Amino acid sequence: MTSDRIPEADFPRRPLGHWPTPLERCERLSALLGGPEIWIKRDDCTGLAVGGNKTRKLEHLLGRAVADGHTTVVTFGAVQSNHARQTAAACARLGLRCELLLTRSVPRADALYETSGNVLLDGLLGARVRFVTGPEDITAALDEIGPAYVIPTGGSNALGALGYVDAAFEFAEQAADRVSVDRIVVATSTAGTAAGLCVGLAEAGLRTRVEAVAVYRSVEETEAALEDLVAETAGLLGVAAPRGGRTVHGDWLGPGYGVATPEMTEAVRMFARAEGVLLDPVYSGKAAAALVGLVRSGRIGADETVVFWHTGGAPGLFVYPDDL
Ligand SMILES: *Cc1c(COP(=O)(O)O)cnc(C)c1O
Known about the structure:
The protein has two domains: 23-52 and 157-319, Rossmann fold (3-Layer(aba) Sandwich), CATH 3.40.50.1100; 54-155, Rossmann fold (3-Layer(aba) Sandwich). 41% of the residues lie in helices and 16% in strands. It is globular, with a radius of gyration of 19 Å. The protein is built from eleven helices and ten strands. The relative contact order is 0.17. The strands form two sheets. A six-stranded mixed β-sheet has the order 1-2-10-7-8-9, sandwiched between helices. Strands 5-4-3-6 form a four-stranded parallel β-sheet, sandwiched between helices. The chain is an alpha/beta fold. Helix 7 crosses helix 8. Bound molecules: pyridoxal-5'-phosphate (PLP). Pyridoxal-5'-phosphate (PLP) is lined by residues 52-53, 82-83, 154, 156, 187-194, 280, 283-284, 311-313. Belongs to the ACC deaminase/D-cysteine desulfhydrase family. One of its GO terms (biological process) is alpha-amino acid metabolic process. InterPro entries: ACCD_DCysDesulf (IPR027278), TrpB-like_PALP (IPR001926), TrpB-like_PALP_sf (IPR036052). Pfam families: PALP. The active site is at 81 (nucleophile).
């Protein structure tokens, strides 16, 4: 779904997903937590090779790549990057060559971690996977690959974030005659998702707050990334950057990116058993842990309505068997 505020002539888009993704009520989860009315926005169901939040960004990024005549796409991520996997799928769909430069940014090097889950799917989808260790390695790989459209980690530049401006409009239309939402809780790493939502919600005239849960870097670094990207995304669209209406939460990162926490494990089990919804250990599981923690500590009130924005990631479940 595209709003007229993102003109196709300026921002060519390649359709890759199934829109709108469902907005579903979670009555059993609400009852279990004794309070807020909880809904879930199913961006795990975007339809592209197990789905996830990168699909919306890729519609804009690859729209531009194809319009500019590129035939090769390069992107970056962790070994178990959902972004890399969705990029591989999107490239397959569009007949583009896909080169993935993956970094071992999680303290694990076991065979399961390096061969299963997303990285298994990358190969299946026809992408070329290279493990890289530093800037020199990356420069050498880029030289070898030659001319290509380069997508930053997580697809998070202003163009990618437009996918979540679209998403905010889609959500506003979906919620309009059904529910008035106080807050959205969403996992945040490179911040394109949260930034696009902040800009889009403001443009759609909604006052829904965004609770961005840091799962990758410190709260300060995540805030800085989010603020920059809100400004850049608004700038790209030629609208005013919204002020306020967002909070970054740092209490659910635990020891670091991709490292399991007891709160994550509890939340993943809770969503699975109360709602039949599969989260992931790296992103949505920690965001759900934040939702649970904010409700239990009264920071989200029992009379509020909250949307948990599911960003996908289920392939990651298969590489964390010991924690689940
Ligand atoms: C990439 C990713 C996120 C984070 O999105 P950003 O736009 O990078 O902040 C959240 N959840 C999942 C499952 C992801 O793959």
